[in-house]
Amino acid sequence: MADVSGISDPYRRRVLDDELDELMAGLAAIAIDGPKGVGKTATASQRARTVHWLDDPTQRAIAAADVDRLLAGPAPVLIDEWQNVPPVWDCVRRAVDRQAPPGRFLLTGSASPKDTGTDSGGGRIVRVRMRSLSLAERWPSEATVSLAELLEGGRPAVTGSTERRLGDYTEEILRSGLPGIRTLPDRARRAQLDSYLQRVVDRDFPDLGYAVRNPEGLRRWLRAYAAATSSTVSYEKIRAAAAGAEEPPIARSTVIPYREALERLFQLDPVPAWSPTGSQLKKVSLPEKHQLADPALAARLLRVRAADLLQGTAPAPLTPKDGGLLGALFESLVTLSVRVYAQGAEAEVNHFRTYRRDREVDLIVKGESGRVLAVEVKLAAAPAGDAGAHLNWLQGELGDELLDKLITTGPSAYRSADGIAVVPAALLGP
Q1: CATH number of the domain that 46 lies in?
Q2: How do residues 38-68 score in pLDDT, each as one tens digit?
Q3: How many folded domains does the chain comprise?
Q4: Domain boundary among 63, 97, 129
Q5: Are 152 and 220 found together in one domain?
Q6: 20, 57, 145, 289: which one has the fewest Cβ atoms less than 10 Å from its Cβ?
C-alpha cells in the first residue's frame, strides 16, 4: 500500500476527468476500464490518496492472501489492475453494501476476467470506459465546436478554423493516442507498438486464461481485423483473409475465443448498429462496425507508414472505402474521438445502415433525450456536392428526432446552405 497524497507530477486533464468529478460525488466505487496504456492509472492516481499496485508481484501476493487489506487507507483508495486478484471485485462490492461513503474506491482494469461476476456489478460498482486520447485531448487548444452543445439542440454556432491538414491527421493515426507511446521518436514508437501487440498475444491472453496454441494464426487474424477497420465486413470474411499462404483458414471454434478474449482485453472496440424505434425506419442492417482500440494498432499490424497512406500505396482494406486504407483509419480516429466526447455527454455512439445498403451514416450519436446527431466522416478537404445526401435523407425520415448533422473535413467550420454543420475533426470537442 502507498500513500500518494503528495504526488505532484504534471498531468494533462482528460475528458473523463469531468465525468469522474460528477460520479465520485455520489458513488462509492467506480471501475475505470480500458486497454493497457490509455492512461487509466495516471488519471486515477490524481485523485487517490492510497494506491494498491496489483501489477506488482509482492503486493499481488499480499492481496491474494488477505484481500480485505485493500479496503484500508485514506480515501480515495485506488486498486490498480484489480483483475490480477479477481476476488477484489466482490470485496469492494461488499464494502459498498456496508455503506461505504461516496468517493471511497477507484478500480482500474485492463481486462475483464471470466467467471468472476464482474459482468454484473449490481449497481454497486459503476464501470466507465477510458479510451485512447481523442483529438481534443491531443490538441487541447483547437476545438471550437462542442458535441455536448450540439446534443442539446438549438443549432449552436459552427465556427472556427484550423491549420491541421491531411498530413497532420495521418501522423496522429500513426502516433497513437497511447500517452506513453505517442511522444517517442518514430522508430522507437514503431518498436513499442510492436511490443504492445506482442504482449497481447504472449502474455495478456494467457493471463486471462486463454491458451494460444497458434500464436501466428492469432496475429494473422488481428491483421485481417485491422484490414476490416471501419467496415461491417462479416467475421467469416475476416477469418478467410487470415488464412496463411500455405495454410487453411483458422477454425471457427478457434476464432470465437480470440474475439472474446480481445473484447475482454478492450482491444476490440466495435461500434454497434443503431436500430431506431418509433420511427418509419424499418429495414435496417445490424452488423457491428469493426474498430480496434487505437487506429495506430491497425496501422502497425498492416505495416503502413505515412507515405504509404498519403500516396495510396497502402494495402486495400477488406471492403472498398473512400480514401482507401487512409479513409478507413481516419474514420477510426474520428470515431475514437466522438466516442470520448459522447461518453462525457452521457450519449451513445452507433452506426446506421439500411438492409439494402443503399443508405448509411458513419456515426449516430444518441443523447439522453433520445434525439440524435448524424455524423459523416469525409477525408476530402471540402465536401463534394452530394456529400450530405445520406444525412439529408435521414433528416427527411426522422424530422425533429434528428438534432443536427455533421461532416468532419477541411480547414473551416461552418453551416452549409442545406443546414449541415461542416466541422473539421480538429475543431470538434466535448
Answers
A1: 3.40.50.300
A2: 999 999 999 999 999 999 999 999 999 999 9
A3: 2
A4: 129
A5: yes
A6: 57
**pLDDT for position 409:** 82
Query: Which ranges constitute the DSSP H helices of 49-185?
Result: 57-65, 87-97, 135-138, 147-151, 166-175, 179-182
- Of 125, 122, 35, 115, the residue nearest 79 (C-alpha): 125
* Segment (H or E) for 395: helix 389-398
pTM: 0.94
How far is the C-alpha of 182 from the C-alpha of 23, rounded, in Å?
A: 29
Q: Which long-range contacts (CB under 8 A, 24 or more apart) does 354-358 make?
A: 354/281, 354/283, 354/284, 354/285, 355/283, 355/284, 355/285, 356/283, 357/285
Residue ranges making up the domain that contains 94 = 2-129
The pLDDT tens digits of the residues spanning 256-278 come to 999 999 999 999 999 999 988 75
Domain boundary among 129, 152, 170: 129
Q: 280 pLDDT exceeds 90?
A: no
Q: Compute the distance between CA of residue 383 and CA of residue 47 in angstroms, rounded to an integer.
A: 44
Give the three-class secondary structure for 55. coil
Q: Which amino acid is at 321?
A: K
85 and 113 both lie in a single domain:
yes
- Pull the grid cell for residue 166: 491531411
